[in-house]
Amino acid sequence: MQRQLGVNRVIDLSATPFFLRGSGYVEGTLFPWTMSDFSLMDAIECGIVKLPRVPVADNIPGSEVPIFRNLWDNISKDMPKKGRGKAEGLDPLKLPTKLQTALSALYGHYDKTYALWQTEGIRVPPCFIVVCNNTSASKLVYDYISGFQPAANPDGTLPPPYLGALPLFSNYDQNGEPLARPRTLLIDSEQLESGEALDDNFRSMAGTEIEQFRRDIIERTGDLQAASKITDAELLREVMNTVGKIGKLDESIRCVVSVSMLTEGWDTNTVTHVLGVRAFGTQLLCEQVIGRALRRQSYELNEEGKFNVEYADVLGIPFDFNAEPTISKPVKPRETVHVKAIKPERDAHEIRFPRVQGYRVVLPEETLDAVFNDDSTLVLTPELVGPSITRQEGIIAKALSSRWPTPATCAPPPCSTT
């Protein structure tokens, strides 16, 4: 880059400057060219991210590690081993009992957090994410918490839909009708490819947001054809990328069930709860998953000039860090005000700044010639340059006088006075 572009220095900022398993180095070792490392532990101690709260004890005797801390070790034998395309006979109502208990326990705290946000009038809900190991598990968890339509009876009639075990995450109303704007979203590879990700009424109910998405595509790419033919998969990805953003497709989503789709590029400050339903072999993977919930909502300082503590409640992820067990009620959040351009109503007031690619100094080719005459004479007088004698005197000290040079006359060639 220095040779081709003339860039003197390149600084690379990475969230995970570590060697991974199979690299030939000790896993978790910093890259040797790393000059400075500001770890997640440092960020937690400084308070610039949320404080993750993980289980530190439970009431099960004889267990060294809380069950909900290493949830996968306690349920893995009862979970499907293959993806959704190869698994058969999956029943959402037969999830392992410990998994159902973990979901209910974390949901109970989410319910209180949701009520606080409603009381404060915050327009977007808090977000609850579930990270699963494969597409079979994600589908089971999704159907269990958001509801599903059971298979037809032998006589061909349809039984009433199952409304979901967690009411705030149900995608059905009290009458068993699917909601046009879902509350829970399933994000995995098979769901993206199925073409059945969104309800048929979604396009009509989210018409304003979809139109804004279409304008955003045109503004970014200039491709009118791509903006006019938005697929369900593209809509689903946009929904995933706009969790917790007012006026966007995903402002109403309360829960996201995913399989390796919520990567480091996916960040939202409304995530308050995380449940891990998969194996976590390294602390680095724990950091990456928990990191999806650690972006703060507010960076306003309190009366002491510090950030108020914000928490992310975590189950099923064996994250190790030095923190004392904390029992606290959900914190009343402050509403975040988003400042953005209003398009197209205020396009006329847009201020554009040029993107500077370089500088060039151009000197004029013509020369300047000086001609001196009688009018070029300048007489320096006290009236023109000020007094020639000054007197400075302190209250006690001896007086100090300064005499300036006698006025002189300058004529070309120029002369100078001191």
Number of helices: 12
Taken as a percent bin, the fraction of beta residues is: 5-15%
Average pLDDT confidence is 78
- Count of strand segments: 10
Radius of gyration: 34 Å
Biggest sheet statistics: 6 strands, parallel
Multimerization status: single chain
First-residue to last-residue Cα separation: 53 Å
Structural class, by secondary structure, is alpha/beta
Supply the number of structural domains: 2
- Give the proportion of residues in helices: 10-25%
Helix and strand string, N-terminal first? HHEHHEHEHHHHHEEHEEHEEE
Question: Tell me, what's the shape?
Answer: elongated
Strand order of the largest sheet: 1-6-5-2-4-3
Low-pLDDT residue intervals, each spanning 5 or more residues: 406-418
Structure in words:
- The chain is α/β, with parallel strands linked by helices.
- The protein folds into 2 domains: 15-46, no CATH class; 51-349, no CATH class.
- The protein is 25% helix and 10% strand.
- The chain has helices at 2-5, 40-46, 71-75, 97-119, 135-146, 189-194, 202-205, 207-221, 224-228, 232-241, 283-290, 382-385; strands at 51-53, 127-132, 184-187, 255-258, 271-277, 311-315, 378-379, 389-392, 400-403, 409-410.
- It has a 6-stranded parallel β-sheet, sandwiched between helices. Strands 7-10 form a two-stranded antiparallel ribbon.
- Residues 406-418 have low confidence and may be disordered.
Summarize the structure.
It contains twelve helices and ten strands. Mean pLDDT is 78; it is low at 406-418.
